[in-house]
Amino acid sequence: MIPVKALNEQGIERFRTWLAAPDGPAPYSILTDDGFCREAAGEWLIDSSARFSTSYELGVYLVETVFGKDVDRFAIRADKGLWAWISLALLPNLLKRGRGKDGEPFDLPHYIEIEARVAYRLIVRTAWELVHLHGRKARVALSSPRTAWGDVAEQIAGRQEVYAHPGFWTVAESLYLKPDGVQKAGVATIRNKEHRKDPKSKVGLGAARRLVTSFGQFERTYLLREMSSEEILAILPGEYGRWKSPVGG
Hints:
Distance between the termini: 43 Å
Largest sheet: 2 strands, antiparallel
Low-confidence stretches: none
Helix content: 40-55%
Radius of gyration: 19 Å
Number of helices: 12
Strand content: under 5%
Number of strands: 4
Order of helices and strands: EEHEEHHHHHHHHHHH
Structural class: mainly alpha
């Protein structure tokens, strides 16, 4: 266990340089080097050797073991250096897997906050915050064992209208997770222009991206935040019917 710190400007730049051209080992030594770090806003400990099979498990670890459930969410989410430090500390969990790309990093925004437009892609912060906000329901976006950042996370986490919407996550859990918590097949499928032109095509109907769109449309007519998940499920279009089965879409 090591004390949680925050990377300073020099530390962030050192990490950024490695991510842009990952030649050789990651610069783990800067995690405890005062020349590259500053003190964090609280006294927390982290196990940099911890390994997780999914980003959901990582989020649970950050919520329950590192920060606790009573932490000031808004205060720590704004600390870019803190999340860059945690990204580096837990980096082996955040790299690409399979397809000949084992150990390669994703793009920079998955580890360091670069710009607000893509801030949701910062894996450790989004995993922590979704679990902090929604608990087990966050499995909808974070439960892929094949990648630290899957298509469903990309489709949902970037949409502010549903990111913190409790009703959305309850409905999504009901539709897209099997009883054992495993994501149903096809949840990330996108209904593109070609599919929309074919009246017989059912590709992507009722999948995660469509649910985000449906919530946006319903918000114009219904007070969804005052409705139960059962009431919301009852007004969903027929395309969601097949997703209500416990085993798949």
